[in-house]
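I have a small job for you when you get a moment. Can you supply me with one protein entry, sequence and fold together? It will help me judge whether the discrete encoding reads sensibly. Write everything out right here, beneath this request:
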Amino acid sequence: MDVMTGTLVEWAMAIRQGDVSSLDVVARHLEQIAAHNVNGMGIRAVIEVNPEALLEAEARDRERRNGFLRGPLHGVPILVKDNLDTADAMQTTAGSVALEGHRAREDAEVVRRLRAAGAVIVGKANLTEWANFLSDHMPNGYSSRGGQTLNPYGPGRFDVGGSSSGSGAGVAAGFAPAAIGTETSGSILSPSSANSLVGLKPTLGMVSRRGIIPIAMSQDTAGPMTRTVADAALLMSVIAGPDPRDVATQGVRWPSREAWLDLGRGALKGARIGVPQAYLEEVPEDERRVFNEALSELRELGADVIECDLPKRDFDFDVLVAEFPAALDRYLATVEPWLPVHSLADVMVFNARNADRALRYGQAIFERAQAQSHLHLADGSYVRARLRDLRESREEGIDRALAEHRLDAIAFVNYYGCAIAAKAGYPSITVPAGYTPEGKPVGLTLTGTAYSDVRLCQLAHDYEQATKHRRPPAM
């Protein structure tokens, strides 16, 4: 195994069986970061390396030699996006210089679960600053603190995707076998498909949001970004679960760990996959050809692929803009008292005073959110907008299409269907489907109804194992 091709499942098994030490595995990935993050290809996927990663790896090795394994990720290196709190020597900044020096006092629940399963958090991944909610024209992968993340399949040529840009580019570039990204609308699916990865955007509430710098309480979620569906399912078996401090997780139907890992084969035989033609209109021709080939492959695997009616709606930002100020202010109220920012208004003032560093692309979305911060749950316009989003994305959208055509899932190219699934809070998984003649990765994305996460994994796994499209970038 090497850092470019080894999967999470393979590294975890090798460490568990004593074929390789956690120290060796973590060191190899740190060497790859040193070779190509700032140096070499200059991917800039990692905004900060954990200075205690090697010490943590040695601790996991001692535990294993003493007959103790923490869990299924024992000793394996993982990257987490720089909007997840880590209670260690690393900062949590959402890529913003305004939060430089912020070190969380408590792990995000996702991070806590990763550590409990034995993972070594090897570093924090760069992101489109503030998870792409600062500027209306910021390039994917840029942050004032981390610089510009590049796509290792075509640095400077192909879009890296966002906002979980560093999570995607980092796994593709061999900086870690897996990463955690977050999504409000497209931020896992976009960089996963752009970097030839598997990315799962879970049903809202399947994964705790606590300890994640927020955008919108109604759509935010974390999820896995990996090289295989089995790796994504393994991560979900660890990070999914209840959190009494996150109301979104209450009453959720969580699959068992065994259900996540029971991917099997043959899930596509007899499955009904819908293809909404309206979502193909803006897809470039070379990517559409790859997608059409993927549909043919689905048919060859026994799926019934049919056209389905799913209206392509232009969802607005009203709900996100309304929820953002309160969500961010709540988070910033917990940061160190000596930091200069404790509210959205504080961040905007800091940015204006440090415009040469902080505002290369402006802060138009922040300005809109602050101007409309009077919107709240007592304001009828917010409630109407939220209920409209739910109705159009669920009853009149995904659920109607699934029911009318008796579908198991709806297929999209890359992240083109991300908005409707995000508004609904429904799951989507993207899996490598091939490459354009220029070498640009293309993903096949499957979307389902609430809590169909495991079913989507099974369908995607069947396609992945039969086609084996993914290949690592030339580093």
